[in-house]
Each structure stands twice: as C-alpha cells, then as structure tokens.
Design goal:
With 399 residues, the protein is an alpha/beta fold. The chain has one domain: TIM Barrel (Alpha-Beta Barrel), CATH 3.20.20. It contains 15 helices and 13 strands. It has a 5-stranded parallel beta sheet. A 3-stranded parallel beta sheet has the order 1-7-8. Strand 9, helix 6 and strand 10 form a beta-alpha-beta unit. Helix 5 packs parallel to helix 6. It is globular. Keywords: Lyase. It holds the Pfam family Amidohydro_2. This is Amidohydrolase. GO terms for molecular function: carboxy-lyase activity; hydrolase activity.
C-alpha cells in the first residue's frame, strides 16, 4: 500500500531557551520565565503527581524558573533517539535531546524521515493548555507570557515551515474576556486551533455546564477554531492508589478524554453551538463505541431523572459524529470498530517526541493498522480528516 503522507494532530514542542527573552516585552522579562541549567534531585511520584527538586550534585538538567515554579525537562518528554529502556524520568538538557524537539528546521527534517507532512504541536513548559500561566500569581505578567508564547508559536515555530507546522495557541484560562480576546487576536492572523482543558474544574475553573465558557465557544464556532483537549490538560491523570506505579496511570491515560467527552455530550454546548469542533488528543479511540452506546442508552432510558430531557434533543452520539474528532497511534481495537468510531471522525498522531512516539517507524506502524482498509478510508485517517478539521490548505487542487 502507498500510504499518504501523514498529518499528525498531536505532537509536542520543547520550548527553546530564548523564547521569553526574545518574545516577552522587555518590561516583563525580569518577572517572566528564565532558563537555567542545574542538577535535578530524585523524582517522587505519588497519586498522579510528581514532586521535583533541584540538587547541585544531580544530573545536569534544563529548567524554567518562573515565580516559585521550578520546571525541569525530563527524558520521557524528549524521548526520541533513546532506547526504550532509557526513556526515564531523569532530567535532560536541550543539548542531549534530538534537535527536532526544539528546533523547527530540524523538526521538519525529522518529519520527512517519519513520513509526516504536517504537525500540530502542544506546549511543554506552559503545560498542555497553559496551566502554568493560569496558576501564576502575577496575572499581568502571565497574560504577557501567554501572548509571547503564541507569538513565538505563530511567527517562529511555524513561521518558516510553509504551513507544515500548524499553530496551536494557548489562552489566559483565568479570564473569559481575555481568553476571547486572545482567540480573536490569533484567529485574525490565521490560527485555527487552541488548546483547552479536558476537565476545567480540576484546575479550579468553571465547568462547561455553567455557561461561563459560552463566549469562547461562540467565537471558536464563528472563526472555525478547533478546541483541542489533550490528555492531562486537567493537570490530573487517572490514579488508582497513591502507591500504584506510573504504568497504571499510562494504561488509564484515555480516562479523562472519556470523561470529558461524556461531559460535553450531555452539556448542551454542542446543541447551542452546532458548528463548534472538538478534538480529543492522545486519547485513542477504542473506548468510543461503548461510550456512545451507553450515552445513547442513558438518553433514551434515563433522560428525565438524569436532568437532560430538555437539554439534549437528539441522541448524544448525534453530536459526536457531527462535531467531535478523536485520534490514535496504537489502537487496533479502535480500527476494528472503525464504523462505530466514525470513519470521518478519526485522525492520526505521532506524539513526537514523547515516550509514546512512533518515530521514526510511524509509516510501518500506520501500515500495520490500516492494512485491509480501502484507499479512501486510509486517506481520511492519515490526513483527510485532519485537513478538514483544521481547515488546512493541503490537498487543495491547483486552480
């Protein structure tokens, strides 16, 4: 099979050390994030949370220092190029990383090696939906940091890529008016994707049921801006017990996406905003058929006492097939259930440069998943659905 070049809807970028020095206005730089190389102590993982300390005698590691936050880069988030058994939670410097982690020109070369034409990249230091700045004390500086990150993302990370690196922007989550203004600012320069929290109440923010986020959703609908929700964008991964190994968390990583989708299906948001597009990132898709079956069953049998009789006029799966995209990279069960998942709803990702990344073997992994599917479906999964979702110019016939 001649596999189409892939449009990956979930990759990641390691921010270069010069980001805020270059893009943050000078008056904020002494209060903004600063890069530092210093030793790292032993990491503790308890109940889904990491505790990280500096240690002058520890392994040299690149950090960001911001207010009272000490944020290190670790091997598991810059794992490409390492042997599987060396993809650990040890600290790492940019010099030790594969250059494509943080250099856009090198990333394009790695995409060529990996059969990838275009890529949407989530942040690392700001965390998946900008939680770092939402948690900051000085919100004036935090807002400047959000804008600086987005300017860097649009003009530097994506700027010289010829459309192959697709801008994904963060918003000031702590203020709906500022969030709307930032979406408008970015939409006006062609950005069609933002990253949002899968479960905002876990961040101490209003739920999607309150109507608080409706101005944001309304503008996203108006501008065709996709609301992307990455697993972990609630700063809380599923944890069973405080002493469970991280392998349990990794196995259950889809859980928050499943919970978030259930939330949206019964929220009325997709009823009020019928052209709003949601995208679940790194959540896989094998679980979706049962969730849709269960949600429709609840709607039929329990909608009166369940509180959604007057909110959701059609079976919840209606809104999924109309407005929600999922993505996968290793999910043969999802492929086997593709008709229920939706041939028009599934997209593909490579997760570069994380531990889960299929780099540099993505073409082989993808072919193993799509063997036996017809050419039209393969095209949809590898690129067509992503192009439609993000409104990309790729595959546009010449005039």
């Amino acid at each position: 099979m001649d596999l189409p070049r892939i449009v990956s809807v979930d990759d990641h970028v390691i921010e270069p050390a010069h980001l805020f020095e270059t893009w943050l206005p000078a008056k904020y730089r002494d209060r903004g994030p600063r890069p530092m190389t210093a030793g790292i102590g032993e990491l503790e993982y308890t109940g889904g949370k990491y505790r990280i300390t500096m240690d002058p005698d520890g392994r040299p590691t690149d950090w960001w220092i911001y207010e009272d936050l000490r944020f290190p880069y670790k091997r598991n988030i810059a794992a490409v190029g390492f042997h599987r058994d060396d993809m650990t939670l040890e600290g790492i410097t940019r010099e030790e990383m594969r250059r494509g982690c943080w250099d856009p020109a090198a990333r394009l070369k790695d995409m060529d090696l990996n059969h990838v034409e275009a890529s949407l990249c989530f942040p690392t230091f700001p965390r998946f939906c900008g939680q770092t700045f939402a948690e900051a004390h000085d919100k004036e500086v935090a807002l400047a940091c959000v804008r600086a990150y987005n300017d860097w993302m649009v003009d530097e990370w994506c700027g010289d890529s010829g459309g192959r690196l697709i801008p994904l922007c963060i918003i000031p989550l702590w203020d709906i008016d500022l969030a709307v203004a930032e979406v408008r600012r970015n939409a006006d320069r062609g950005v069609r994707a933002l990253t949002f929290s899968e479960l905002p109440t876990h961040l101490g923010l209003p739920s999607i049921h309150t109507g608080y986020w409706d101005p944001l959703f309304a503008l996203c609908q108006e501008t065709g801006t996709v609301v992307n929700m990455h697993i972990g964008s609630s700063s809380q991964m599923p944890a069973t017990s405080p002493d469970a190994p991280t392998a349990v968390q990794a196995t259950l990583s889809f859980n928050n996406a499943m919970a978030s989708m259930s939330d949206f299906l019964f929220s009325g948001v997709l009823v009020r905003f019928p052209r709003l597009t949601l995208a679940y990132s790194e959540g896989q898709m094998g679980w979706i058929p049962y969730v849709l079956e269960r949600a429709d069953d609840v709607w039929r049998e329990h909608r009166a006492w369940g509180g959604v009789r007057d909110v959701i006029p059609e079976p919840p799966s209606t809104y999924y097939y109309r407005q929600i995209f999922c993505c996968f990279f290793r999910d043969k069960h999802g492929i086997a259930s593709l008709d229920a998942v939706g041939r028009d709803n599934a997209t593909f990702e490579t997760d570069y440069p994380h531990v889960d990344s299929t780099f540099p073997h993505t073409k082989r992994v993808a072919l193993d998943h799509v063997k036996g599917l017809d050419d039209e479906t393969v095209h949809k999964l590898m690129r067509g659905n992503a192009i439609r979702m993000l409104g990309l110019d790729l595959d546009t016939p010449a005039a």
